[in-house]
Write a structure and sequence with these properties.
By secondary structure, this protein is α/β, with parallel strands linked by helices. The protein contains ten helices and twelve strands. It has two domains: 2-142, Response regulator (Rossmann fold, 3-Layer(aba) Sandwich), CATH 3.40.50.2300; 149-244, Winged helix-like DNA-binding domain superfamily/Winged helix DNA-binding domain (Arc Repressor Mutant, subunit A). 43% of the residues lie in helices and 19% in strands.
């Protein structure tokens, strides 16, 4: 199957991901080692980097530490529904479930728990790659347009001019402080996990550097909060990450 896939240049181009960088996929599968041997050559040829986990706990840890661009979750995982629901609480990317052939109950349960799509076993690798590409396209299409200016409790963030002010007076931020603020502000009130934030401001490979992120958030609060000890802009979501509250966003009770 892989040889036939490799020979077809037009098919390979058709199944390539839509983003300019190499998307990173996470396979959560109790037989991850064997599945990777089958999938890795095709994923690599199609422009994806792949990692795997053989338990739900390990898979959730990867999502938290260094969120992938897409997740493939095998229904044979004993706690598949629970893993899917927990993943969806902190992860906004595509999740594709591998279900048993002609098992409508599994497919429906997967979609209700938050999956974007499903592929029935046995499946062709090209079919999975096509579903991955379509799911990534849908996510990109649903992503809201980046705002030019964000307002929050008297603070104005001009993302186009990279200018932050309060009451017309500039707030001086270091490049990394500004980068963290911009990432949070663009999320429009959505919680960003520690792993997502670290990947965006430090790059992949730094998903465990939570102390660095805490220091950066503390420094940012000192710059933009009226009372850094009681923040109203950059809020902590314990055990998950941080959110930035813009004007009009619902404030957690």
């Amino acid at each position: 199957m892989h040889a036939a896939y490799e020979r077809s240049g037009s098919l390979r181009d058709e199944l390539r991901p839509v983003s300019s960088h190499r998307p990173r996929t996470l396979l959560i599968d109790p037989a991850a080692s064997a599945s990777q041997q089958r999938l890795d050559p095709a994923l690599g040829a199609a422009g994806y980097d792949a990692v795997s986990a053989d338990t739900g706990r390990k898979g959730l840890a990867v999502i938290e530490r260094e969120p992938p661009d897409a997740v493939v979750l095998d229904w044979r995982l004993p706690d598949c529904v629970e893993v899917l629901r927990k993943a969806r609480e902190v992860y906004g990317g595509p999740i594709i479930v591998l279900s048993r052939r002609r098992c409508d109950a599994e497919s429906v349960a997967a979609l209700e728990a938050g999956a974007d799509d499903y592929v029935e076993r046995p499946f062709r690798v090209g079919e999975l790659l096509g579903r991955l590409r379509v799911s990534l396209q849908r996510r990109l299409a649903r992503r809201p347009a980046r705002p030019d200016v964000v307002h929050a409790e008297g603070v104005t963030i001009d993302l186009k001019r990279r200018l932050v002010t309060r009451g017309g007076e500039p707030i001086h931020l270091s490049p990394k402080e500004y980068e963290l603020l911009a990432v949070l502000a663009e999320a429009d009130g959505r919680v960003l996990t520690h792993g997502e934030l670290l990947a965006m401001i430090r790059g992949r490979g730094h998903g465990d550097d939570h102390p660095y992120l805490r220091v950066m958030v503390g420094q940012l609060r000192q710059r933009i909060e009226v009372d850094p000890s009681s923040p109203r802009l950059v809020l902590t979501e314990p055990g998950v990450g941080y959110r930035f509250l813009t004007d009009g966003a619902a404030r957690p009770v």
